[in-house]
Amino acid sequence: MHSSSQIIPVQYHLETRDDMLRLWSLGVVQMKKAFQHTASILLRELLRRCFGYKVDWRRLFLFITVVAVSGIISQILVLSYLSHNWFVSHETDSSYQSLNSTKQSNKLIKEPDKVEAQPRNNSINGSVKDKKLADTTKITTSSPSNGLVPSHNQRHIRLLPPNQALVYAKKEVDHAPSVSEVPDLYAPLFRNVSVFKRSYELMEAILKVYIYPDGTRPIFHKSSLKGIYASEGWFMKLMEENKQFLTKDPEKAHLFYLPYSAHQMALELYVPGSHNMKPLSIFLRDYVNKIAAKYPFWNRTHGSDHFLVACHDWGPYTVSGHKELHRNTIKALCNADVSERIFITGRDVSLPETTIRVPKKPLRYLGGNRVSLRPILAFFAGSMHGRVRPTLLKYWGADVDAEMKIYKRLPPRVARKMNYIQHMKSSKYCICPMGFEVNSPRIVEAIYYECVPVIIADNFVLPFSEVLDWSVFSVVVAEKDIPNLKDILLSIPMRKYLTMQNNVKMVQKHFLWNPRPIRYDIFHMILHSIWFNKLNQIQT
């Protein structure tokens, strides 16, 4: 407990730190002058005594070098001692002090002016002028500041209990300093790049994840890196290999990962033709009950600091057998359908569905043709799964409209001239209708091949929509508007299309699987969405 009398000295230290900075700078200047004055006197005296004598210049040069180096070392030692005592010692009083001192230290750099973000025009047919206004007013600032967590504050944050560290991070994100430019990030893609930047930095500085060792292969700790469900496998692999975010001490963990594969579970437990998914939910229910009985961590929060990653269509149904798993756990799901009342916006995470054809080369075929070499207005080819695709084919099949290349499976006579990937690389818009479930690997494929995705899936929460503004690099069409699809696409001005297509190129980096993860790639974006939604649950 901290009494009010303990808070006053903290404020005193923070308010007097400017004075300490001035004293420290003054000390540097005075010490430099003193050293120069002393060196000048010694040199004059040395020359006076040596005048008229034979001088060993080699020894004289060695002597001067020793004096100079000694002076430099003495300055470094003295200044290091002073800076350590002035700036570090005040940070170790209490956990309460470290939380507040970090915020104040950011203000020492410079407090940015607060601005209100203007709402973006979400209309597909919005004018270019409105879009430019939204882009320029969305994130503005007069004085960007360095949002990095100072290293000495990082050490104290890591000493905080996990729940206190999360409260600290929540407050920091809620009051993120405004920035106009961020290295390696393209601001127009984000709802608020300032919030994303601060949240991502804090994730890197704070987050620790504990992976339960329980469970046997192939359902646990192993998943496929190939095919349309590869996202869950790649995340599991890279998470278990990670050194930055993993901890072997569960007491230090902010999040707990349930390392199972919904895809492998379906292969192992589902009886073909039975239409019965209950064995899957019972299996996962028993697993959660086992770790809840073996460890104290699940019962401590009723599973709210636990998460799972499942890309199989049946992923949401695997959690239905356990009430707390269903209601409390953060679920990263490819099947992010809010209408089924399993996925909860603001807590759960929409997982991108990525088709990986060659696991050793996940970035193969990346890129596409320039706009002048994209003669096809819109393209789709695929099985007639679900309710949307037959309707799409009915109105816009290739035999109905020559500009709309809408097929079932790509006909062999067509594929011989131009295969599936070449069609996407040669199209302005790639149609991404839902199949049996709302998500489709075509969305990420379109991004890979630099084709503007046209998403037709009511009730679908788009991946990373916590931070990304999908309206600037995609078109969302309601299922009821399929008869008007061509008119909707033709009504988009060329200038707006060019901006959207460029944004597709810029957002591509956030959807790439790298064998060794790099900042802001899909692995880190998934982990950040889980972290971000965990912070959203915290009440401050």
TrEMBL record:
The protein's GO terms of the molecular function aspect are: glycosyltransferase activity
The superkingdom listed in its UniProt entry is: Eukaryota
Which keywords, in A-to-Z order, does the entry hold? Glycosyltransferase, Golgi apparatus, Membrane, Signal-anchor, Transferase, Transmembrane, Transmembrane helix
Primary location group: Golgi
This protein's name: Putative xylogalacturonan beta-1,3-xylosyltransferase
- Where, subcellularly, is it found? Golgi apparatus membrane
**What InterPro entries has UniProt attached to this entry?**
Exostosin, Exostosin_GT47
